[in-house]
Amino acid sequence: MKMVFMRRFPRALAGLIAVLAVLATSACATGAAAAGAKPGQLLIVTAFYPFQFVAQRIAGPHAHVTSLTKPGAEPHDLELTPRQVASIYDADLVIYQRYFQAAVDDAVAENGNAHGKDNLLDTADFVPLEDHGPLGEENDDPDDRAGTTNLDPHVWLDPSHMITITQAVDRRLDQIDPAHRADYNRNAAGLITQLKSLDAEYRTGLATCKRTEFITTHAAFGYLAERYGLQQISVTGLSPDTEPSPARIAQVQQLAKTHGVTTIFYETLISPAIARSIAGDLGLRTDVLDPIEGITSQSRGDNYIAVMKSNLTALQRANECS
């Protein structure tokens, strides 16, 4: 019996230490998260920018909303500090998407939230992630979680999915803070109106184009392409920092010639070197198509809707839409 106890003790001790670390850090984290908050405000922690945008628009002055991903940082490779882990535990509401940021998934799985499961909002529960095709040899991911490597996380680039997310956040805030339900409902309705208008602009603006194919360095636009009848050709897969193989670059160049592509798109948070190299070899233009994973001084707009409109303009110009 003594030997059994001794074998189990280290594992139990490790678990206890992990829990104590979160609890010890949580008081500091709460103070840090609340540093910009006013008395009585909810504390909402979001995984990255699109969810922060939705939460801020719906909650308005009733919440202090933060993002775990700093502006300009690449959200795919997010690593959390102990203070950020504790902020997830302490928040009144956490909005995230599983399979996108492993560090957030782990923090939620290991520590949960002090207020219970109802205060954890996983958008993948109501916006199913889709497989937008094989990633190719250059994107073989040894850390694939249960075959999820091909699941495209970029659902927010389809405005209809953003409407669904808005509705879900509104419902959850109604439950958490019913005293301000009328404000949340009104703010959500206003945002949904804007998102419906954005969707209509895309449908009209991309209805008549010379071509439907577009080339981008990062396979972030599968949902957008599917929604508006386009075909995404990506140099790399879902991971934006993957180096493409020479064979893939040659294949993309041939596809560009076949489809009469005029533009190679790159994005604001990663180097444009690959796009410029491919474009230079073929005498094509380069332009920005932003996956809106974060807003920086380089973004073509200061919020989700503004950048989506800039993306629409870029696609219309590249595909010669009338």
Automatic annotation (TrEMBL):
Keywords: Signal, Transport. Pfam families: ZnuA. The keyword Nucleotide-binding does not apply. Residues 127-153 are annotated as: Disordered. One of its GO terms (biological process) is metal ion transport. GO terms for molecular function: metal ion binding. SUPFAM superfamilies: Helical backbone' metal receptor (SSF53807). InterPro entries: Bact_metal-bind_prot9, Lipoprotein_PsaA-like, ZnuA-like. The keyword Signal applies. Residues 1-29 form the signal peptide. Belongs to the bacterial solute-binding protein 9 family. This is Zinc ABC transporter substrate-binding protein. It comes from Microlunatus endophyticus.
